[in-house]
Write a structure and sequence with these properties.
234 residues, alpha+beta
Length: 234
């Protein structure tokens, strides 16, 4: 075997081994850090605000009342931003993520390698996906939490600081994009990456609200592990 070819093969093997090693370390860190609990799940108390943690199997959303004394979300997230413009919805869910994933990849079958690469390595932009709901139904992928007014104020502050705003202080609606009849997209701050994913954002939001969360997790399962099989809080 020529020396040059031998060197190429050896270098390729080293690079491949290095990539595999990084993936293994990342996966182990994700499992370990996801299992470490932070905070406590709040109990229902008089005046508590009901919110929900909702997963579609990949992304985690935080679902909160459309209106309460703390905030009226429709002052920024308008019903008319969605195709249905249905003002009967009483809850709104927020998810944060890579703009390319959100807008250009409605299904995993349409995922482009360039989109994934940009998202993983700090090269893309971010967006917030807002979805209006009737009262969510608790189940394997939806859990209810109770927030004191002070905790909810912290959660509101976290979500509001995640939006990007125009010169008039208004959220920037990304027109022409939605997954269905009741959702819309908005420009957001920060950059998606391997260590700060859509689920990392939701996990950080729960921490900000003083709720049970993982120490760090890039996956929805890292959040729900701390809520599943522990029984509902009534």
């Amino acid at each position: 075997m020529p020396i040059t070819l031998r060197k190429v093969l050896k270098t390729t093997a080293y690079v491949g081994g290095g990539i595999v090693g990084v993936v293994v370390v990342y996966a182990v860190a994700a499992v370990v850090c996801s299992a470490i609990p932070v905070g406590e799940r709040s109990q229902p108390t008089p005046g508590a605000i009901e919110a929900y943690i909702l997963s579609n199997g990949v992304h985690t959303d935080l679902v909160v009342p459309v209106r309460n004394p703390e905030i009226d979300w429709t002052q920024q997230i308008r019903y008319v931003d969605t195709p249905a413009a249905d003002s009967s919805m009483r809850y709104v869910g927020f998810g944060w993520g890579d703009k390319g994933f959100y807008l250009d990849t409605p299904t995993w079958a349409e995922l482009k390698p360039s989109t994934a690469f940009k998202a993983m390595f700090w090269l893309g932009e971010s967006a917030i996906h807002a979805t209006f709901h009737h009262r969510p139904k608790e189940g394997p992928d939806c859990v209810r939490i109770y927030l004191t007014p002070a905790q909810y104020a912290e959660l509101v502050d976290f979500i509001r600081k995640s939006f990007d705003y125009d010169a008039q202080g208004l959220v920037e609606h990304i027109k022409g994009h939605s997954y269905g009849q009741y959702d819309a997209f908005y420009e957001a701050k920060r950059t998606y990456n391997l260590f700060y994913t859509c689920n990392s954002w939701a996990n950080a939001a729960l921490k900000a609200a003083g709720q049970r969360a993982a120490f760090w997790t890039p996956f929805d399962g890292g959040i729900f592990w701390h809520y599943r099989n522990r029984g509902p809080v009534n």
